[in-house]
UniProtKB/TrEMBL annotation:
It holds the Pfam family DUF525. PROSITE patterns: APAG. Residues 8-132 form the ApaG domain. This is Protein ApaG. It comes from Pontixanthobacter aestiaquae.
Length: 132
């Protein structure tokens, strides 16, 4: 199945694309648990080699509760991307509401250690309505 990247943002020649899917098999609505998986593709269309150092997520649930998540790299990696290279990874997000959203930024550094804050596009998390 070819994934469709629904959301994208470009910062200084670095594109971040996101495809998100609700996972009913990982969710338990009756227990107040919903789960999404998201696929991120980072494309370096700049003219310099960059390394992903850290991530910052702003995760909002349907009640308006905001959770900030910071960490080194992505899924345990700090990939180096030369011009023209891409990096893909998949991760997940649990919520205690059937909808919410995510957005944020990655911090990259250049070979000269100059930081670049690369935007992660806003994307909604929405579980399909279920009939009772």
């Amino acid at each position: 199945m070819k994934e469709l990247f629904q959301h994208a943002a470009i910062t200084e020649g670095i594109t971040v694309r996101v495809a998100v899917n609700f996972l009913p098999e990982q969710s338990q609505p009756e227990a107040g648990k919903w789960f999404w998986v998201y696929h991120i593709r980072i494309e370096n269309d700049s003219d310099q080699t960059v390394q992903l150092q850290s991530r910052h997520w702003r995760i909002t649930d349907a009640r308006g509760m905001i959770n900030h998540v910071d960490g080194e790299g992505v899924v345990g990696e700090q990939p180096v991307l030369a011009p023209g290279q891409t990096h893909d990874y998949v991760s997940g997000c649990p919520l205690t509401t059937p909808s919410g959203s995510m957005e944020g930024f990655y911090t990259f550094t250049t070979r000269e250690n100059a930081p670049i804050e690369v935007r992660i596009p806003f994307f909604p998390l929405s579980a399909p309505a279920t009939a009772d």
